[in-house]
Amino acid sequence: MSEITGNEIIHQYLRHNKKFPHVLCAGCGHGIVLGTLIRSIHTLGIPKDDVVIVAGIGCSGRLAVYVDFNTVHTTHGRALTFATGIKMASPRLNVICIMGDGDALSIGGNHLIHAARRNIGVTALILNNNIYGMTGGQSSPATPEGATTMTNPYGQLDASFDTVALARGAGANYVARGTVFHVKRLEGIMEEAISRPGFSVVEAITPCHTQYGRKNRYKTPVDMYKWLKKAAVPIERFEEMTEEQRRDRLPIGVFVAEDRPGFEERYLALQAQMRAKGGK
Amino acid sequence: MARPRKRKEIFALGNEAVVEGALLAGCSFYGGYPITPSSEIMEIMAARLPLIKDGVFIQLEDEIASMGAIIGASLAGRKVLTATSGPGFSLMQENLGYAIMAETPMVLVNVMRGGPSTGLPTSPAQGDVQQARWGTHGDHPIIVLSASNVQECLDMTITAFNMAEKYRTPVILLLDEVTAHTREKIAIPNQGEFEVFSRTVPSMPPEWYKPYEETVRGVPPMPPLGSGYRFHVTGLTHDRNGFPTQRPEEIVELMERIHRKIDQFFYDIQLVDTIDTADADVVVIAYGSVARSAELAVRQARENGVRAGLLKLKTLFPYPRRQTEKVLAHARTLVVPEMNMGQMSREVKRVNMGRASVRTINRIDGQIVTPSEILKVIMQG
Ligand SMILES: Cc1ncc(C[n+]2csc(CCOP(=O)(O)OP(=O)(O)O)c2C)c(N)n1
Ligand code: SF4
């Protein structure tokens, strides 16, 4: 067993009273995303007590168990609704939502749209592994067309959701995409997402070799990370590419970065105005 | 000596009285989605809460979101309310189970309408009694209250908040359309004239705190999110630290505690009103607006020489067993009128165990149960 020295940043944030091991498969990208999240909170210098991690249900949802913040593991697809209540009740808290692609885009799709429309001051971190991991590899709204899963053994017919386009269309303040292969860049994105007012959406592409890769030509974790390395291109480069070059490529980077006030700020301003006018 | 302040009297709808009661109890957060016949609760909250210090009103995208938001706000330390009706109540069930499992105080008002499905939106019904008891999945305790007139809407809302906070649990207030939409004169109690209970917060250092620890009352203290007590909240079956567990002894410990914390306080929780039950041969057991019809029927029966009485249920669940046992000591007949096909008479029969004869009166046509209907059955003995 390797020695835990406590020098790593992560050791300041893991829960030592939680019985390990964790539930993730070796090689899963979810742990890398959690690492970037912790390091970005650390860099921003936010005290643990001021952070609330709200998670949905799925492999991604389990991440909340291991970290020493205020953590709320909710129902499948509903993390953003809990987060909205927490943020409105305590606007000073940094509320970060961890969701899977099934969680955020399928069962929770409506909440994602409305959180963006409201521009609630919450950071939505969507761990997109193109599949339902925890339930054994059924297709998700992010499964690419033609891919094979447990529930479309003959190939996915539906088109895959573009999280970035969806979040931007619905009115999110900040929208970005990164991958677990490009860790440093993902960390930077996460820092910015947490610092911005209003609703931020970060899509982190994270491989699930166990449920997705093995059925779609990526047998090992290494195959999956190689794919990420090849497929992802910065949005600036992507925009200069031809239609032909863009095929099977994934633009990453920051797509929307505004500073509109969050719903909670607008509510508090309205409340102050109404109370000045003659409330109690 | 200061003269006691006179109570302010207002002319209010049942739904309006719910809002008054909630605000008196310290509610500062409403999240909801409109649906008839509960919408006035939401509309009045929308006008009132932004005028109150720290008052938050938010209209969510649906009932599932409403429940999520109020659970989140409750975890952050607020006293929270939502209101709905049948179909919305069905949507709330998954997160209702979450609130029970994560021991989150909240009050949910369901102004019942005829069902199943979108059913009868504006007609009185009492069709959600068993949904309130068993709507969410799994074995679980629940507190369900009711009110039969506008004053009671106010009083029982305060009671609902107090129980939610005291027992760290969701409390459901089941109203029917008649009660919710009746306008009557009510008295608003002054602060200090009624009990206001708020959840116990931990006083030990954060390192010692175990969020789901066994306590004398079975109710662990609950700090607001962000106050220095960092712990994990989950709908999964969890150990004393709040972490998911599959160990049989930990599962049983949690399940037994959440049942016991409610079951053992039946004197506090199981509320009834009685009228002339002490010597009654025939006892009507009713709740909601039907209890008002029953009250008149019982008085008329007495005038006609029948020893009739009324056991009015203000708590529907846990079912007031002791109080029913008491009337069963002498009652030959129990009459259970309700606006459904027999959802509460099942409970009565369960407790009765064949001792008295149980007569049911069931209206499922969107009409109220009239005093004369009940009187007729009482007079048959
Ligand atoms: C209401 C409800 N429906 C279905 C499920 C079963 N379920 C658990 S996790 C999951 C999907 C998980 O996939 P995703 O959100 O993509 O996260 P991942 O496991 O891939 O990280 C589903 C469907 C559930 N828990 N609750
Ligand atoms: S099933 Fe997939 S998403 Fe879940 S832990 Fe394993 S690799 Fe990760």
Automatic annotation (TrEMBL), chain A:
CDD domains: TPP_OGFOR
GO BP, sorted A to Z: cellular respiration; small molecule metabolic process
Residue span, Thiamine pyrophosphate enzyme TPP-binding domain: 65-203
UniProt keyword Oxidoreductase, yes or no: yes
GO molecular function, one term: thiamine pyrophosphate binding
Coiled coil: none
Organism: Pseudodesulfovibrio alkaliphilus
Record's keyword annotation contains Glycoprotein: no
Keywords for this protein: Oxidoreductase
Protein name: 2-oxoacid:ferredoxin oxidoreductase subunit beta
Automatic annotation (TrEMBL), chain B:
Origin: domain of life: Bacteria
Pfam families: PFOR_II, POR_N
Keyword tags: Oxidoreductase
Keyword Oxidoreductase attributed: yes
InterPro entries: PFOR_II, Pyruvate:ferred/Flavod_OxRd, Pyrv_Fd/Flavodoxin_OxRdtase_N, THDP-binding, Transketo_C/PFOR_II
Sequence ranges assigned to domain Pyruvate flavodoxin/ferredoxin oxidoreductase pyrimidine binding in this UniProt record: 20-256
Boundaries of every Pyruvate:ferredoxin oxidoreductase core domain copy: 280-374
Designated name of the protein: 2-oxoacid:acceptor oxidoreductase subunit alpha
Source organism per UniProt: Pseudodesulfovibrio alkaliphilus
